[in-house]
Amino acid sequence: MPFVSGIDTAMSRLLSGLLKALDSDEREAVSGDLLEARESPSASALQVLGLILKRQLDPWAGWRPWLLLITVALPLAVALSQATREFAGWSAIYSWMLINNTDAALLRSAGFWSGVRENSWKIGEFALVLFCCSWACGRLIAQLSRKAHMSMAFLFVLTSLFVLIAGIPSHARAILVHSNDRYFPNGAVFANAFYRDWFPLIVYAITVLVPLLLGFAHAEPAVRRPKALRVFFYCSTALVAVGLVEQPWLLMEMWSWQMIPVRFLTLPSLLPVASIGPACLLVIDVGRRSIRLRSNRSTRWTDTNWSQSPER
């Protein structure tokens, strides 16, 4: 039956993807056991899924994953998500001004296009900064959490999504604008459901979720990387963490609680500078993977031609 055949094909692909979540040695052993058992793809997928869940939950019996979660993962998730929330807020205002309030007269204005270029550059620049910082955070947590990286990624994404949707209560805003309305004074923008509800999720998916998962998925054991790159990576990630802590919204909150003096509010943002290191590492990583992929394709092509060549 075509329907049953389609289900088996989908389950086979799911099984192949689940097997990739296991270590290479364990993957080969599990694949051999599944071949000997000769069970259906759906039953095999359930067994592998159960094994993955067990492997991800076992490390949480110790103290290391909990320490990493409390001291690294959750603070980075909150800071990164709140930075994305702030970015989505002001970029939504610019987008609303450029998209929802454009007419034929504005399109003929040179000043309008100058504003489009300026605002588009600001939005694109900070989006790239968040992308690189999210990738660095994902790779850092994946390398530190090791065997618990999938469960740690789930908790990281869950926390960041909660902060993105719920937000953090602002004590500074109540002091400065004397209003609990988080959309004040841009209520006209966020009266639109798209900019209020969907735009932050789209920004989060592009600038945080995708690079974060890439960082988790592409993390390699530290022994496979040159020592210089390891040192550069950890230094760059430490600078990213400092940049996330030193954001204007967080400094403003700390000032409102009289935790820092007012002169700290004028500190320049380190986040754009901090993203340079992860950007370089991301380019290096993409280049290495491209070279490796081409090498593997070339090897397979050579082996195929050799096996198909007539015997002499």
TrEMBL record:
It comes from Granulicella aggregans. Keywords: Membrane, Transmembrane, Transmembrane helix. This is Uncharacterized protein. It comes from the Bacteria. The chain crosses the membrane at residues 63-81, 123-142, 154-178, 198-219, 231-252, 264-284.
